[in-house]
Each structure stands twice: as C-alpha cells, then as structure tokens.
Amino acid sequence: MKNQIRDGAAALFLLLAGLGVGAAADNGSTMPKDRLFLTYAEQHRLFLNGAQEHAIFRSVSKQHGKKVAVPSEFEAEIGQVVPKSITLHRLPSDATNRVWAAKPYNYVMLQNQLLIVSPQDRKIVDIITQ
User: Fold this and answer.
1) What is the reported pTM?
2) Which domain holds residue 29?
3) Which residues contact 68 (CB under 8 A, 6 or more apart)?
4) With 0-12 CB in 10 A as exposed, 13-18 as middle and 19+ as buried, what is 105?
5) Residue 65: pLDDT band by 50, 70, 90 thresholds?
6) CB 99, CB 52: distance < 8 Å
C-alpha cells in the first residue's frame, strides 16, 4: 500500500512538473526553451529579504564608515557595471555568516546606497538603502 501511494505521488509530481514547464514554455517568451529558468546569478540579481539587507547594511556600516563619492556619469542600477575607479570591498565575515547567499559578492558604499556587486564582472546584483 505504501509503495502504491509513493508511486502515485511520484507520478503526480512528474505530471505537475511537466505541466509547469509546458506552461512556462508556452508563455510567449522569446527566450530559448533551455534558458527559461535562469539562476539569480545569471539574472545579475541577489534576492534578499528586509532582515538580510538590514544585517548586511549594519555590518558594513560598522566596518566601513567612509562613503565613496559617486562619479557624475554613474547611475547605480541593478545590472549596471561599477566603474573601475570605484574600489570594491569584500563583505565582512559577520555579514556573510548571517547571509550566506551574499558570500561571493563584494560591496561599495555610495552616499545613501550599499551596492552589492559581482566581483567577476563588477555588475550590481542588489542595492540596499537605509
């Protein structure tokens, strides 16, 4: 009896998963079907909740009191490349211990914004304001 329930649940899961993929594929997207599901890193996004953002901001503020002047031509937006004239810093260990998803990223504090930046391509993945 347990095997029948397990097999039935597995079949239902596969059916529903197939329907979800089919619905996603038929949504009018121009993206190739093998690229429908991108990771957050591929989207150049880091999705943090308010408590995680607050923990990172507080940790960085304690360690890094000096804010960097923003170049006049630079406008901070997610996906935007941070100019090489701006020095990036590793996130403090107490921040990454609390928010492990932020561990691979760097940061820079600009006036009222904390930019979380991918060190590989210097693209902004999140902006935290307090």
Assistant:
1) 0.65
2) 2-35
3) 86, 87, 108, 109, 110
4) buried
5) low
6) yes
For 55, residues 6+ apart whose C-beta sits below 8 A from its C-beta are 95, 98, 99
54 and 29 in one domain?
Answer: no
Residue found under tokens 């503020």: 61
Is 119 found in the same domain as 74? yes
Length of the chain: 130
Token reading at 96: 């990454």
Q: Which two tokens stand for residue 102?
A: 């932020």
Tokens linked to 48: 């943090």
Per the CB < 8 A criterion, the answer to whether 102 and 56 are in contact is yes
Q: Give the model's confidence band at 57: pLDDT under 50 very low, under 70 low, under 90 confident, else very high.
A: very high
